[in-house]
Amino acid sequence: MSEQIYSDAEFEELLKNYDYSFQKGDLVKGIVCSYDSTGVIVDIGAKTAAYVPIKEAIVDKSVPVEETLKKNNEYEFLIIKEEDEDGRFTLSYKKVAMAYSWRELEELKANDETVEGTIVSVVKGGVLVEVKGVRGFVPSSHLKLKATDNVVGETLELKILTMDIQQGNFILSNRKSSADEKDENKKDLFDSLEIGQIIKGEVVRITDFGAFVDIGGIDALLPLSQLSWRWVDHPSDILKVGDTINVEVIVIDHEKQRISLSLKNLEKDPWVEAKDKIKDGDKIEGTITRIKHFGAFVEVFAGVEALLPNNELIEYQNSKNTILKVGDKVQTTILKFNPDDRRISLSIKTEE
If you average pLDDT over residues 100-121, what whole number do you get? Predict the structure, then answer.
């Protein structure tokens, strides 16, 4: 058999396949080759296979090492001991997995999310749990049940209270946070409400478009248009923060988690009252409530407004040599009253 001759370039390329520079603390990728009674054999591309002791291979003691590190699969490992006399590195899979677990737990805490944990021991003052391979402690004060009522192997829904990766301190709670309880109360309230229901609430905020009323943990909107049958310029004209009022539920939007209320629905509808008191041809003194470019709104009965067309408004002002403003009284004539459609044709033409 003849000896194979390599060119300088080929020999340099061949050396690259066997060139490696690993040291303690490096993260490396390796393929699981086999198992023995004390650990796992892994190919990381070094001159000899690396070794993962059982205690550094298992993350969850209930899962066999063959399931944790499956043969022919590639995983990430940490070099925890440099080459021995046989040129073999010692690796840890557990430390890498734990590092990723801590990072995931940090994200869960930052997002205030819940996580499942398994009770591994009942101890004085609480229980020890395992969460994503990390041991944590749940104090008795943060357990729904007494510590002695919890059993090893039981799964708990937990929230992370504090965590210190350097010290390995990890404390959790099995009790609902105030935010969780508030969400549950909100859901219960939504489920109990009905359209048309009269409830008591407290005005907690006033805006240009209405007021927000606390009706038992939910801030519901009382729109400007639902404050009164009469024209209201601003909610602060009739409400102030801290007022306790009765309101009617008029909208329940479960999808958007919104509730709308009405205050005026608790009063008599003035259009119904006016039906028996106003008729076509009546001459009524009205009060100007709003002036727009298309005319003026005139209140001819408490809570009942009619639109005075702009041409009549201008004609009246010219004839009287005056400029009408909000609050002024004017003599009007009801041309046509339609209470069902809530419309009134109005005139203030002066008689010749």
Answer: 87
- 8-92, CATH topology level: OB fold (Dihydrolipoamide Acetyltransferase, E2P) (2.40.50)
Distance between CA atoms of residues 41 and 33, nearest Å: 6
The upper half-sphere exposure of residue 52, i.e. CA atoms within 13 Å in the direction of its Cβ, equals 32
Question: Is the Cβ–Cβ distance between 322 and 283 less than 8 Å?
Answer: no
User: Residue 52 and residue 12: Cα distance in Å, rounded?
Assistant: 32
**Tokens 């009469």 belong to which residue?**
230
Task: Indicate the domain borders of the chain.
Answer: 8-92, 109-175, 180-266, 271-347
Query: Which of the 8 DSSP states describes residue 142?
Result: G
Distances (CA, A) of 331 to 63, 68, 133, 182, 345: 91, 91, 84, 56, 14
CATH node for 109-175: 2.40.50.140
CATH 2.60.120.1200 fits 271-347, yes or no: no
Task: Write the pLDDT tens digit of every residue in 288-342.
Answer: 988 888 888 898 888 888 888 888 888 888 888 889 898 899 998 888 888 888 8
Radius of gyration of the chain (CA): 40
Tokens 């796992």: give the residue.
40
Residues 336, 287 contacting (CB under 8 angstroms): no
Task: Check: pTM over 0.70? Answer yes or no.
Answer: no
Distance CA 315, CA 322 (A): 10
For the chain, how far is it from start to end, CA to CA, in angstroms? Answer: 134
Q: Which tokens in the block code for residue 282? A: 């009546």
* Cα 260 from chain centroid (whole Å): 20
CATH superfamily, domain 180-266, is Nucleic acid-binding proteins (2.40.50.140)
Note whether 31 and 71 are within 8 A (CB): no
Angstrom distance (rounded) from CA 144 to CA 197: 35
Nearest to 133 by CA among 185, 60, 63: 60
